[in-house]
Design goal:
The complex is a heterodimer of chains A (97) and B (399).
Chain A: H1 5-28, H2 32-55, E1 59-65, E2 72-74
Antiparallel strand pairs in A: 1-2
Helix pairs in contact in A: 1-2
Chain B: H1 2-8, H2 10-13, H3 20-41, H4 47-62, E1 65-67, E2 70-72, H5 83-92, H6 96-103, H7 107-118, H8 123-127, H9 129-138, H10 141-152, H11 157-164, H12 171-181, H13 186-211, H14 214-217, E3 225-228, H15 231-248, H16 253-267, H17 271-296, H18 307-335, H19 354-366, H20 373-398
Antiparallel strand pairs in B: 1-2
Helix pairs in contact in B: 3-4, 4-17, 7-12, 7-16, 7-17, 9-18, 9-20, 10-11, 10-18, 11-12, 11-20, 12-13, 12-20, 13-18, 13-19, 15-16, 19-20
Classes of the chains: A mainly alpha (97), B mainly alpha (399).
Chain lengths: 97, 399
Amino acid sequence: MFRQRRTWLGLFLIVVGIVFVRVLSGMIGPGNWAIFIYLLGVVIALGGLALVASAIQVSSVSVVTCPRCFLVNSAEADKCVRCATPLRKDDDGRGEK
Amino acid sequence: MIDQLARVFEGVSTFGQMDATTVAIRIALIALGLLLIYLSAKEILDPLILMPMGLAMALVNGAILTMDGRLTNLFVDPMLAKPDDVLNGMQIFFLQPVYNLTFSNSLIACLVFMGIGVITDLDFLIARPFTSMLIAVAAELGSILTFPLAVAFGFTYKEAAAIAIVGGADGPMVLFTSLELAKHLFVPISVVAYVYLSITYAIYPYMIKLFVPKHMQGIVMDLRSIPKVSSRQKLAFAVLAGTVLSLLFPVAAPLFASFFIGVIVKEADIPRYRKFLDEVVLTGSSFFLGFVLGALLSVSVVTDPRIVLIMILGMVALLVSGIGGLIAGVVTYWLSGGKTNPLIGIAGVSCMPTTAKVAQKCAFAVNKRAVILPFAMGPNVAGVITTAIIAGIYVGLLR
């Protein structure tokens, strides 16, 4: 996570956003500009948070969805763990073509 | 003789001490309570909150009696403010300790949020952070547009913000914001929000049929594999997100702390805490939330004539948020080249996991192979966080 450039860029944006919200908007004083800086800071910080999230390594797990109750089961399961419906494994999960 | 009978059947005789309008409101509230019980028993409305709320609403308006020369009940008196009065009230009104120790300081909202945190899965949010956030922000359209609308109807900024946050469709957030910004409107806003949150899920499917073309509703998404993030990374993200959001919105920090402690307990895999937060804290706080809210809706408390306006604005907020979510869902459909089912947009309206289930139900009604529930969970979780952010912005700017 911390080896990726996006993580550090995201953390930088978070710091910038927090400075906008907590420091700059307070320095400007009450008024429309202060609200604008406050909201801009919120957007920058949340963008940074999303950037950090996007840098997290995501793997994928094979699954089979129960056709009856929609529970997502492990690909190895023969029947649904909730309703015991036999699971079809011959399709690609996208249903009818 | 009549005096003695009146004393024995005080609940009935107090009708004679009220003016015609108050009697009508009292009867209407009893009828509404009974209706909520009926609809909850039929599972048309969510019984978890609305069953105890309906029962308390019917009973509290039936059990009005005279005490110290004024009409009251023995459930709860939310008007007590002075410390001595509160202490005395705790020995008289049986729900007063629950109200003063958990409602008036927003603890109940935090307890519900801890429970929500422990059933939240961050995998889909982390796997598609920008899509989830885009949908969730669009699904806050009602929370944003209702604010100027409420101001135009004569509400103050604080009152308007407390009403607008109903559009976030998140009960704890409505409680928190109304307690922080408009305590005098806390009861009507919260009750309207919780009743609407149940009713809206019956309305959203019709809205989906109206706004999303049928061929888009049944789009099947690729479910051969689902994203998986390691618990350690989810834990790190939860700590970072909680810290950043608390730094940005200190006024909403108790909500963020509660939500992320739930997430952290789940990801740290502490089974005893997990079971405690899910089965004890969430269940217990949901029960008392419904019961105390119902008990607060007594005829002596609901005197604000603007309640009809609050009901209209609350509905507008929820419907506009739903429309915003669906528009974002359609945008996502186009951006993904037609691979994303636009119904996941409705899941951006945060109430977890109900709106995600509504999306799944509607997709299933069109195509029996359309499984979109796992994909709808990303916007659903993002919706919880964005509603807390909007609440933090409102409280931060207006308090």
